[in-house]
Amino acid sequence: KAVVSTQSGHYGRGLRARGCFNQVSKAFKKCIKENPNFIEDTVAAAELAYENQAEQAVLDFVDSSSNTLFGELANLAIGQFDSVADIKSFIEEYVSKDLKGKVASDAAAAAKEAKKMANEWCSSGCTGQSADFVEALFKGMHGGQCVDASQFCGPCHDNAHAHFSAGNSIPCCMDNVIQKGIAAYEYVAEAYGDQVNEWVGLVSDELSAAANAKAVEYRDAVLEQADCIADAYNDHIPDCA
Questions:
Q1: What pTM was estimated for this model as a whole?
Q2: Angle at alpha carbon of residue 238, lines to 234 and 241, rounded to 5°
Q3: Is residue 5 predicted with pLDDT exceeding 80?
């Protein structure tokens, strides 16, 4: 009974999540139908809200952080993009027609796949299963010298390995999403890697030597943690055949 009750609870949460998504989707479609300029009006309202409520705070942050990587990036972004029109102009200048078409096609395919995955996620009760798994994993990881999961390499990795080795495994519905995420990342890296590197180069040229050095430091730190997470995952991929 306990197992059935838990599964029913997971399924119920999945249905509520899907119902929420459907309500939001329906509301957006209704707004667009009633007002063909709904998206443009929403963007304009967001720009006005930013100008009235957040712009000064952003400017103050840039002024106070001018000698940091994030401060330089923020200052560069503010100087380059003052409005949505500026973003459109940047796209027109640096994104070719062929690339736009490819991005649009890939985005449409990704949206279709995302909707399919969301339906599968909800109908299988994966929200609850994943929440239970993550909660148990973090409890299993916490202890000893593992006090910050963002620093996964070392004690946290070892504790996670012990947790998995004790018979705990990633829910198959969750692993399905992970596997598709990995495949999507690999596709984007192959299809758009050169273009992304070109854009990164444009940004790098505008930053100071100190900011570029800090960016490399952050990149290396992220890659180190990512490698440790990948090792833990690859050692304990669930058998979902």
A1: 0.69
A2: 120
A3: no
Instruction: Measure the CA angle with vertex 52, ends 50 and 55; round to 5°.
Output: 55
**Residue 208 burial (CB < 10 Å; 0-12/13-18/19+)?**
exposed
Nearest Cα neighbor of 230 from 171, 185, 166, 173 is 185
pLDDT band at 2 (very low <50, low <70, confident <90, very high): very low
- Report the chain's mean pLDDT, rounded to a whole number: 86
The Cα 85–Cα 183 span in angstroms is 33
Tokens 């505008």 map to which residue?
Answer: 206
Contacts of 35 (CB under 8 A, 6+ apart): 41
* Residue (of 25, 233, 224, 225) closest to 118 by Cα position: 25
Q: Is the dihedral of CA 172, 177, 181, 183 positive or negative?
A: positive
Q: What are the backbone angles phi and psi of residue 169, rounded to the nearest 5°?
A: -135, 160
**pLDDT of 196 strictly over 80:** yes
Helix axes 172-206, 69-80, angle to 10 degrees: 80
Paired with 146 in beta bridges are: 143
Q: DSSP string covering 133-181, please?
A: HHHHHHHHH-BTTB--TTS-TTHHHHHHHHHHHTT----HHHHHHHHHH
- pLDDT tens-digit map of 119-160: 888 888 899 999 999 999 999 999 888 988 889 999 999 999
DSSP tag of 241:
-
